Amino acid sequence: MAVYFDHRIEAPEGSDVPFQLSWHSALSVLAVASSSPASGGNVDLYLQQGEYMESCHTERPHQPAVLRWHPVKAVLAIGWENGEVVLLTHPSGDHTVLPSTHTACITLLEWSSSGSRLVTGDRTGVLAVWKVDARGRLQGNHLVKHEYGNPITCCIFRPASPGDDVAMLARASVSGDETALDMFSWKGAPLKMGPQEGLSFYVSTADGKVHSVDEHCKTTTLLSVEDSIKTLLYLDKRDALAVITETLMLSQYTLLPAGGAQEFMKVKLSSKSGQKVDIIWTENSLLITATGEQFIRLWDLERDDNYILSLDETLGFERGEMINCVSFCAGKEILAAGTSHGRIAMWRMVVQPGSSRGESKAQWKLQTPTEIHGNVTQLQWGSSLNLLAANNSNTVLILSEHVMSADFSQQVAAVQLTPTQLSVTQFSSELHLTLQSDMHIKGVCVTKDSVTVWNGKQVTVYELSGTVLRNTGSFLCDSHVVAVYDENLYTVEPNRVQIRTPQGTVKQLLTFTKAEGNPVLLHVCQAYLVVGTDTAHVRVFDLSRRDAKAHCSAKNLADQILNLGALRSVKCNGNGSQVSMLISQVNGRPDHKVYFYDVEMDTVTHFDFFTGRPSSGISHQDESENQQLQGTELSRRCPVSHSWDESDPRLFVCETVPISSESSSNSYLDMVDVSVVTLFCTQEHGLLLQDCYSKPPGLQALLALAVPYYYFSCKLLFRRGGVFLVEPGERDPGATEAPSASHETQPARGASAQAPHMVSRRALRDFVGLENCEKATRDAMLNFSFYLTIGDMDEAFKSIKLIKSKVVWENMARMCVKTRRLDVARVCLGNMGNARAAKALKEAEAEPEPEARVAMLAIQLGMLEDAEKLYKSCKRYDLLNIFYQAHGRWQEALEIAEIHDRTHLRTTYYNYAKYLESMGDKSLAVAYFEKSDTHRVEVPRMLQDDTPSLEIYVNKMKDKNIYKWWAQYLESQSDMDSALHFYESAQDYLSLVRVHCYMGNIQKASEIANNTGDRAASYHLARHYEGHDDIKQAVHFYTRAQAYNNAIRLCKENSLDDQLMNLALLSNPEDMMEAACYYEEKATHMDRAVALYHKAGYVSKALELAFATQQFSALQLIAEDLNENSDPALLARCSDFFITHSQYEKSVELLVAAKKYNEALELCVSQNLTITEDLAKRMTVTDSNDLSEAARKELMEKIADCCMRQGNYHLATKKYTQAGNKLKAMRALLKSGHTEKIILFANVCRQKELFIMAANYLQSLDWRKDPDILKTIISFYTKGRAPDLLAGFYEACAQVEIDDYQNYEKALDALTEAAKCLSKAKDASSGQQDVRLADLHHKITLIKKFVHIRRLYPEDAGDAVRLCESLLEEPELNPAVRVGDVFSFLIEHHCQQGNFQVAYHKLEELQKLLPSQNVRYYISQESLQALHKAIGLPFDRADRKQSLKEEDEVEEDLNV
Fold it and tell me: Which of 386, 458, 1200, 1356 has the fewest C-beta atoms lying within 10 Å of its C-beta?
């Protein structure tokens, strides 16, 4: 929390009433204008704390009208009523009077953004533009003068737009141009930035016109409105101009490139009539107005939104208090408002996560007000220090923000209430006092007997004497930090620390070298003083002796810590062994780490709150689940304060905030998410995280840690006059009302007054319930916590084994929840005697997740928040749902069930409905009973005592089940007619029939049963008819109810034999059996008995009765249902019956079913019955128990033989194969002539006999035209290892090539292959193979000669002819080489040579050799015609025709 120091301006005596304020934008200089009707007006300048600048006094006999500071230089422009304009220079007080241009009251003074232009305007409409140099000095006369004829009201400069080259470079940089990036980052040549300030501006006049003046001072009328213009605003993001008139009409205009303006929005702003309106404009497009009401209005022009901010009486504001003026500080993001009762209300802008600034009114938080008395008429923020000037009609006060001072030591706490007031609390005596000082308190330091305050110039020491504080010493000292130990005060000055008495006498000096720097930070803990310097050095001094002694040499932290800018805070522990430090980085931002300097080891370690982990290698339990969980909770945070426990040097505490808030020094104090982290710090084990505690929202900040408590300052909720009030509920829990010296009506300075409780204590986690324990117990608990943290359970138990308190054991059990040590928790529960918790923990062991088991322990110990976090961490939403229900957190339970635990959603709805019922909220309970789908039972039960509501609910729901329940209720109340109505609505036909029967409406009941066909209704009606001996109707309705056994029973009892048969057939087998027995006993309708036995599944009984009664037609029906599962004897008997009646097919089927396969096969053969695929399949025995393997094969062969005789070759093949006789199978397949199956079967069986058989078969096909068959034949002969047969096939191929195609080359190849195959064959024919082989070689030789002759002929025809002649002389030339082909060769040669006589001679010789053949088969037709023509023989036409016919036939044969 911040307090504001108010400094009244040191106005000279006799000063007039101030009426106008103006801060310089950067310098801490305030201009105040005051006026008096008698003496005229004055303008004076004041510094930061109200110091009067006498040299800058300006006085005129006229009233000052306008004040405006130069934006950069310390030059103030002052406009007077008589039209004079003066430039006042600070601090010299030089006056520069502008040349006489205006003759009327000045209404406008406006500087350009850099101060190079000054615009002046007066009430007559004269406007002048002046040029000012870089030093703020006027340059000559005005640049231009315009006369508009109406008073000038306001002026606004238009911001300069970037140069074109900048925009171009920006686009190039985005696209990745490195040169542009270098230029844009100022690494290259200077950029042409265009104009550095906007020189064009807009000026408005009282007649509602807005004029545009460009950089050359040329003016044009831009727009016009109806009323006088009060304010002009420029919306930079929209490039628009906003105009507000005196009647608060807001208009917004888009500025067109051509120079015009177009209106796009117009709205009337709300205000209180007759009141002065204060209007301000913020950089984030917020328009804020104060109109003398109890609230201020805010318009967000960028988002087109508006809202109000009101005063809150709970913070000290009074009813009827009005807001007169407003001012906004952009640097602090604080909106200040002055009220009619002398208070300044301040709203701080708080940015919520994920939202932007100014997004909604919820982001403005009202602070505790500052009181200055009087009626605040004007407020203005200014200077680089963000000072606030307030005018309360009598004087001007300058307010500067100061962080609230607070300190705690030795059970004494002091918290600042106002700039001059402290609240002091002594916890040992529970005494609360108020200290009123005569100076503004900038710091406070307390001990058990004293309170020391200072303001940077003076130090005052107060001694606590009884119930009052007595001033024991005061002295001047420029030290901004003070520390106190015993009777000594420690102050700082350059390069040394002074040790003083309470009266200021210097007793000792602690000097620092120039390298060590100037002391800037001091802290005392027990008897040790730690000093931090501006060069990041720390030194520790021992104060336990008469003189302070150095405990260690100076440590330069800059050598140990990277990026160290400056020390923010230093603290040491109780024995001086550890020093903790918070630092700022070089860039000025707070570091996320807390650093620890070990004095003895001379080492620096740290705990990083950004990662939530200590520095590497110093945490003993770094990998434990507890550390990991808490490390996650501490990540992305920043430390803001720290402290050591005064009694235990191991215990350290630190206050942290989320990392987005550490940049603001004060805003974190208003946040909810502030964590207090406790660590153990030792040399042996390093940094150990002990606890993480969320600061309650009503508390302000952590003061200190003193076991067993955390000490916090409280938020000041209410302040009015001398009355203070902290937030409710934030007093020290369990504390009694402290005595205070409230008996003094007007306390003197330094005396006690009515004291608010500004400090609140919270017990440490391990000490809840042990706040008042003795020191031994406290030390034991700390040791236990420490050893438990490092995991040394033996030492932990040793430290507490003598403690018998149940509270102690309960606290240890609570600690086990944090550490997740269930084994230790069981021991604790045993010592507590908490059997219920022990039982619950044992039952929870069945849960697979460790977190779920620990959560049950937390529940039993009342640690509900921990249990909730544990259930969430292990995602056991079912248990979390039960947890929420058990603790009455129904909305959270419903949310969990709807999102994560939908399995138990209906159960959750039901339980919530039961809860609502118990709470009396029946209407909402009905809704959740409906959601749980239990409303049909639960809602009638719940509303049974509220009959009207129940009836309304029944009629509304229109649910059949609810209708039925209501009808039953009405029936129980004897309201039969209404019951019948609701039974009908529920379609409960049984109840309808039952009630009608009860009422005697039998006819109506019958109609309902017949029309609806409801079985239950029919059954009830049948029972009714049976009871009244109406057997016919009873049987009918039993039948409709499908209660056939009852109907059969009535038919048997009443001899209704005809109906009995039909009912029995509809009923189950047992009823059919009974009916069949009934017919059999009566010896009538034996056919019905047989049919019923058959239908009931008693086939043997049916057959027996059928044979006995000669029911042959029934016998045939029964036989159709016989199968292999029937009795074989029965099957054989039926088979004989069918043979007798010549029904052989049926008999065969029965024999097969009886597994008499041979008899069935013999019957098929004898009666020539076709064996079908299905019959053969049924005769194929697969079970070895029925037939032996040999008998089975024999049976299969018989079946196959029968199939062969019947011509069913495929089936025969299949059965031969099943019998294992593949040879017969192939023969059967060959008879079928199915080539593909033959080839497949041969390949599958892979037996050489089958290969040979298949190849022989394939030779019978036209293999000459199908190359695939040819290849298959060769493959099969090869696989069948029959080279002799393959050789024969090759010979056949060769002969075909010779006879059909005269292709002796291919024939030669074929015979060569044949010779190869034959040479491989084994000779088993006593030399015949050699003869055959010799014959083959002879043929090959002859064919080779003939082929050689043909090839030789083109090269040497004569030699070829001679060889051909000699070939004819070869013995056994034919059939190796056909004689006709040889003669044809010679005849053709001689015809070509023209030796026709020789050719004719050869032709005659050929005819003699082959008298039975037609020589025209060998010689071409053309050659014969040429030959006959040459020798003069007539060519017989008939012979030619016959020759042609024969030749065609030959060609046709060759093509087949």
Answer: 1356
